[in-house]
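Continuing from the previous page...

OK, I double-checked the sequence for Rhodanese-like domain-containing protein against my notes and this is the correct one:
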Amino acid sequence: MKEISAKEVQQRIENGEMLNLIDVREVDEVQAGHIPGITHIPLGLLEFRTHELDKNKPYIMVCRSGGRSGQATQYLESQGYDATNMTGGMLSWEGQVE
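Thanks. Re-ran it with the corrected sequence; updated C-alpha cells here:
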C-alpha cells in the first residue's frame, strides 16, 4: 500500500498542485474541519460510489488517524484505482482547514 505523510500532502498543496483528496470520515467529522477541496465519501459508502472516481487519476485517502483511509486505499487498489493513504490522518494535519 502506498503512503504519503500529511506534511507532504500539505507541501504539495502549498506548491499549487491539484490533488484528488478523498475524506472517508463520517459527516459530523468532516463538518468539524476538513482540508479545503476534498471529496467526501464516507468509508461505508465507498464501494457504492466508486463510479464517481476516475481510474486514470491518483487519489489520496484521508481520515482521522489513517486507519479508515488505509482500508479505503486497499479497497480502491483492489478495484484497480491509484490510491495512496495519508498516514496520521487529520490528527497529523497542520495545514489549512475549512
